[in-house]
Design a protein that fits this description.
mainly alpha, two-stranded antiparallel ribbon
Length: 123
């Protein structure tokens, strides 16, 4: 029995070198309307960082990704990956309450059956 594919898939799933921010993190932190006026220019014009690609001077806020050159950033803006990401960011992020409700942990009103409400009880 050959397990090469399973081993490969587990290795790919465990890699974290190219992990980007999730959509909800970008929406709630980077693109927050209350903070957007002050944070967007700060994210686009970051101080020079020798550890990041392009010295952290070419940054796409929607994708939370650094690029080496301005030309690479402009090509990224025209690309399908960036356009898909922007389209996905237009949808509202899931809130904690929605996630808990989907997992069955939220508070919901218990409804009584209509037949039980309509029938009067004689005692």
């Amino acid at each position: 029995m050959y397990l090469g594919h399973a081993r490969r898939d587990m290795h790919r799933a465990s890699r974290t070198r190219a992990h980007m921010k999730d959509l909800d993190q970008i929406q709630l932190i980077d693109l927050d309307p209350k903070v957007l006026i002050s944070s967007a220019p700060a994210l686009e014009a970051q101080p020079i960082d020798l550890e990041k690609p392009g010295l952290a001077q070419h940054y796409c806020v929607e994708c939370a990704k650094h690029f080496k050159t301005d030309m690479a950033l402009q090509l990224h803006w025209k690309g399908e990956v960036h356009k898909r990401r922007c389209k996905a960011l237009k949808e509202p992020a899931y809130r904690i309450e929605e996630a808990e409700r989907a997992a069955g942990l939220g508070r919901e009103r218990k409804r009584t059956p209509i037949a039980a409400q309509a029938m009067p009880t004689d005692t």
